[in-house]
């Protein structure tokens, strides 16, 4: 296999510029939710060029929508397809899913961006733009590895199933649709931005919406009303306390370097529509992290119970309890045994390329790995070139050198996992 | 004058149903900002019926917009006029402005309303709906008093200048336009909802917008970012402290029954657009009360200084100071001497009708009285039938009996102030 590895590496070394250009084009098509079509068109073109067996479909059928793990507030998927491209093996080898999501989160406050969020401009080895790190850079690493194997005419025994899915950022409906369409494999790699760390376990998460009541009044006699923002702040404080309690229970050593293994993020607050009025309703939305060994339903119950306890601190909540909705995003946690051969194969490839052992941790965020493993029963590991810290942030970027390194490690893992088929 | 008073009262007693119907029609035309036209059309029709000298004009000329007291973010006043109707006197009497605003605040959370906010339905002597108390009920009391005087063919010496203005709720541009158009008088009554109390002094107020910065990050690694909502809560706490400090300085006995003489109301908060992201900006809007003896500019400076002090409590604000804008609403405080003859005339009328002395206080909110007195140099008193506690609230209502009582007191005040002209 040494010979194949050398050929593949040489090919990738010579084609860095093309891979960079592909990433640039993908970033420039800012594929926020509902606008994934143009970026997927670039992926489809690339898959055709590689001669993969293409499967392009609009998700959203009844089987998907009625599935217990389906969780989305999106009504229409028309024109924004899922894409799968299969590189068929000769048989008798282990198959591998390579999964990347094409959707990106919104660019947020434009003023914080030094350049157009969708410019894809390059400076000092970094390619900037929303989606560069999360996770179009990872997807390009997958395609670069596959292209190198195809271009150097290596035959694999096992199938490689490349997936470019929508809806990861909103709860994984795209990957769930791929599982329900029948895609299975002996293992899967998702190159989310891990800073080249390996995450066999992933934090799951869910979105929640808390509605807090107040009583309106004229601002000049604000003492006649009850400010919903003031009560909303008590809800936020309560959620902060719940976060402390939940994290104090985490003992898994994979989390030892993570400051808050399962955070509760307050992502949105919205209250009031007139500066001179006391607002009578406050809506708080956020995300609660789920530990790899937790059940989604148990986490929901714990948060709801915690907010019910508010009535002990403030009598207002006895008469006007908060209401909790679980809406939109929902990512099942992932939990791969650290002795699993998929993990050890990836670790060996890493060691070989980098000359040192990888950092193995639990991921601080949910991924589509939860759906692949818990619903598809596929062993999953998360490993990618993106910069964890800048995902979802202004001035998001990826270090191009890390992209090429990860492609190298992934190519090596493909060759080891799927095995090279020799005609002689 | 006893004779005239008796005739006027008798007439009003017999025409209660018509006045009630007029209020109902005015409430049903929900004249929120930018939609004042239909309610003003009803006012115009009534003024024509009374034979008043009508002046109907769209405000917004350069003189208004360039005036230092002008403060509005509204760009277009087309189709939503100010209305003035003058009842000319025979001369040699004191003139009186009767001022009511036609604009109402938004209905807010519809779920809190037992009925349609613009139904005007009546139950147990209360007429319900947005604007019933603040302050279409007061305006109807003015028109009822004027109609009674006109219908009983009483001639006054002084002019009565009835004004139905727009934009009170957003800072008084309508009344400022009337002052700049030349309307002056020896006194003015504004029947804002005072629970039949008399307010010679009025709290002024201003709107502010504070922009608070954070640093965005993925919610799963929220510790990599800085949550703008968390920093926004510190800003709210600081404003609460400022409110305490400012109110501890109020010693005017007129404020002795008011829990918070000059409140700071947090009316709006808006932050974040994705539950899984740490929000990087938080916008807080509110209203700060201004004491009758305070200068608007000094209050602005005090709030800004207070927020600058946040950097001593949290180093974040040193690098990312908040920014403060003074936008939209702005009501100059009013301050009438408690020995002024306008006030004593109103007090005598009250005593005569009610058989007891009125409660004289300082108002807990700004009114157009500030503009009339500080810009127009017109002595102003605030006195009206509405229910202070339900202004701007869901299920706003007015007690119809109070409306008729106030019309009685106002009619009596008109006769005393403007004086009856006798041909014999």
From TrEMBL, chains A, B:
CC cofactor: Zn(2+); Co(2+)
One Pfam short name: M20_dimer
Domain of life of the organism encoding this protein: Bacteria
Gene3D superfamilies found in the cross-reference section: 3.30.70.360, Zn peptidases
Keyword Metal-binding listed: yes
SUPFAM superfamilies per UniProt: Bacterial exopeptidase dimerisation domain, Zn-dependent exopeptidases
Sequence ranges assigned to domain Peptidase M20 dimerisation in this UniProt record: 202-313
Keywords linked to the UniProt accession: Cobalt, Hydrolase, Metal-binding, Zinc
Xref: PANTHER family: ACETYLORNITHINE DEACETYLASE, PEPTIDASE M20 DIMERISATION DOMAIN-CONTAINING PROTEIN
Family: Belongs to the peptidase M20A family.
Protein's recorded name: Peptidase
